[in-house]
From TrEMBL:
Regions of compositional bias (Polar residues) in chain numbering: 205-215
Region (Disordered), start-end ranges: 182-215
The protein, known as: OmpA-like domain-containing protein
TM segment ranges: 15-39
InterPro entries: Bact_OuterMem_StrucFunc (IPR050330), OmpA-like (IPR006665), OmpA-like_sf (IPR036737)
Species whose genome carries this gene: Limnohabitans planktonicus II-D5
Keyword field: Membrane, Transmembrane, Transmembrane helix
Domain OmpA-like: 79-205
Skewed-composition ranges (Basic and acidic residues): 188-198
Domain of life: Bacteria
Length: 215
């Protein structure tokens, strides 16, 4: 009888160790499973967000195409990734910020559809000026560099849109100079493509924070 008790006592720690091991493995498996499920849920959420984002972008593109159907069909403007492009030669002579009559006519035709589009989406319009990479060679040296030329052209377009009926609160001007060319400035045809003005609808800045006003 004592020998039997001794055998039980000798084998009991082994079974207890094995049970502890299995319990630890089961716990580790459960933690791993929970981690995998959490990662899958996170990926599903990210995928859903991306799908909604792309659907919104596509809806925005279609709405903008519909609003600008006539000038797009005429080929006077382009639409790429939500940016409305106008060739510089339609608006200005080389190295000039004086708007051409045909350019003013084009901008006037854009005011009504753009204003309606912006109002329906509570957005505003960023008007951006771009140049090629060539040094300005105007005789009177009116502009110091391409930054200044692109800024003045963007301002000219902005002011013209306002004169033709676009509320001033709906747009602002930006200058990019020779940066962000559409194509490499390898020849005159390419440089002509890069001399342009673009207009892009963008979300309005949050008005929840009101700056301090001095009396």
């Amino acid at each position: 009888m004592r020998e039997y008790d001794a055998d039980v006592e000798a084998t009991a720690p082994t079974w207890i160790s094995f049970a502890d091991l299995m319990t630890g493995l089961l716990g580790a498996f459960v933690l791993l499973l929970v981690g995998v499920m959490a990662a899958q849920l996170d990926m599903a959420s990210q995928l859903e967000t991306e799908v909604h984002k792309r659907q919104a972008e596509e809806q925005k593109r279609q709405s903008l195409e519909k609003a600008l159907a006539i000038p797009l069909a005429s080929g006077r403007i382009t639409l790429n990734n939500g940016r409305i492009g106008i060739s510089g030669k339609l608006l200005f002579q080389l190295n000039s910020d004086k708007l051409e009559p045909e350019g003013r006519k084009l901008l006037k035709s854009l005011v009504l559809p753009l204003r309606s589009y912006l109002q329906s989406r509570n957005e505003m319009l960023m008007v951006s000026g771009f140049t090629d990479d060539q040094t300005i060679k105007s005789r009177n040296r009116q502009f110091e560099d391409n930054w200044e030329l692109s800024a003045q052209r963007a301002l000219t377009v902005t002011r013209t849109l306002i004169e033709e009926g676009m509320p001033s609160s709906m747009l602002f001007a930006a200058a990019f100079g020779k940066e962000q060319p559409l194509v490499p400035n390898s020849n005159e045809k390419a440089r002509a493509q890069n001399r342009r003005v673009e207009m892009a609808p963008v979300p309005k800045a949050s008005s929840s924070v009101v700056p301090d006003q001095k009396p």
